[in-house]
Write a structure and sequence with these properties.
This protein is α/β, with parallel strands linked by helices. Helix 4 links the parallel strand 5 and strand 6. It is globular, with a radius of gyration of 21 Å.
């Protein structure tokens, strides 16, 4: 699926290689926020979906490189899902197409050795912007643990027992969320992770895995999940065996789907972190500034910024009120540009910035 936003003939052009599906709420939200930013900045944006198949991303990169020079984009934004980043950069750099990583960067040592640093071996690899994924894992696990302690959910051995349902084994953002979760567990001291599995971000797979996890570890009452879909899969399984999520077991998730926000409000979901979908839109702002002579290198070429917030019930209601239709046109992304705001000294990328700006404009 391709989304093209028309702009002026000479407007800068950007392609976003979206690793998800067009009907997948997180990646659709990411694309929609980028579309709103592109509209504000007069950027011609094209979105190509890989439909959760990383080989499609490689094919799309080759197709972009094969376009006639006049039809190639000025920039490509991509995510290093399933570690495709290095190869995509290599393909596009050979075609003189500049690249920028958002959401997941090149964090693994093997990739680092191959790609070195931005603007070195691959001159067109400009940099990256990553939400601090460890924050999502840490914040949700910490909230889950606190809830378990407050509601006396310890097992007979005096400890809280947790099950962890992670995303995948290769995407840096997935691995960082796991690290954050483990850090919260280590700090708590009286919490044990009974088992950690990988459900590939899938609700169906998480449901299937959790059915035998619950039988194998009947003492577990805390279920941490790397995204909302996997949390719902585990909740489906818990309900199937007669349990009541939020009461006799606690679940956490990541993302801002309507279902997740509603579950947080109802109490069936205990902890929810999100807001990081905005990384693509902010990456677009950085490229806009670079294109217009204000290089972001003065803040760093590989930025790792805190974008996640731990949603309260009030935050969930505010998000639904402002962005429930996944429309971000009410956000003025021009306000985040250094070119358009010369007094701006540092990029502010926390999602609270978005909520605050929208509410001030009303």
């Amino acid at each position: 699926m391709t989304l093209v936003l028309p702009g002026a003939a000479m407007a800068m052009s950007v392609v976003f290689l979206n690793p998800g599906k067009p009907d997948e709420v997180y990646w659709l939200t990411s694309s929609n926020s980028m579309a709103a930013a592109a509209k504000d900045l007069n950027v011609r944006l094209e979105v190509l979906y890989a439909n959760r198949n990383h080989l499609n991303t490689l094919t799309q990169a080759k197709q972009l490189a094969a376009r006639a020079p006049k039809d190639r984009p000025d920039y490509v934004i991509l995510s290093n899902d399933h570690a495709v980043g290095f190869e995509v950069i290599r393909i596009l750099d050979a075609a003189n197409i500049k690249t920028f990583l958002a959401f997941s960067g090149l964090r693994e040592q093997s990739e680092r050795l191959l790609a070195t640093e931005p603007r070195q071996h691959f001159k067109g690899w400009l940099g990256s912007l990553e939400p601090r994924a460890e924050d999502a894992g840490y914040l949700t696990a910490q909230a889950l643990i606190q809830h378990g302690l407050q509601h006396h959910m310890k097992a007979a051995d005096g400890r809280l027992h947790m099950l962890a349902i992670a995303g995948d084994r290769s995407t840096p953002a997935s691995l960082k969320r796991n690290e954050g979760m483990r850090r919260a567990v280590a700090e708590a001291k009286d919490v044990v992770i009974d088992q950690e599995v990988y459900a590939e971000w899938s609700r169906a797979k998480a449901q299937e895995q959790s059915e035998w996890l619950f039988k194998r570890h009947p003492q577990a009452r805390l279920i941490w999940a790397g995204n909302d879909l996997m949390a719902f899969g585990a909740m489906d399984s818990w309900k199937k065996q007669g349990g009541e999520p939020g009461k006799d077991a606690c679940f956490s998730g990541v993302n801002t789907s309507s279902e997740a926000l509603a579950a947080l409000e109802s109490g069936s979901l205990t902890a929810l972190a999100g807001g990081h979908f905005i990384a693509g839109a902010f990456g677009l702002v950085m490229l806009y500034d670079y294109h217009h002579g204000k290089d972001f290198k003065e803040e760093g070429l590989e930025l790792d910024r805190s974008m996640f917030i731990l949603f309260s019930k009030d935050d969930a209601r505010r998000f639904q009120r402002h962005f429930g239709q996944l429309n971000f046109d009410q956000v003025d992304f021009r306000k985040f540009s250094k070119v358009l705001n010369p007094k701006l000294r540092k990029y502010e990328f926390n999602f609270h910035q978005i909520l605050t700006q929208v509410e001030k404009r009303r």
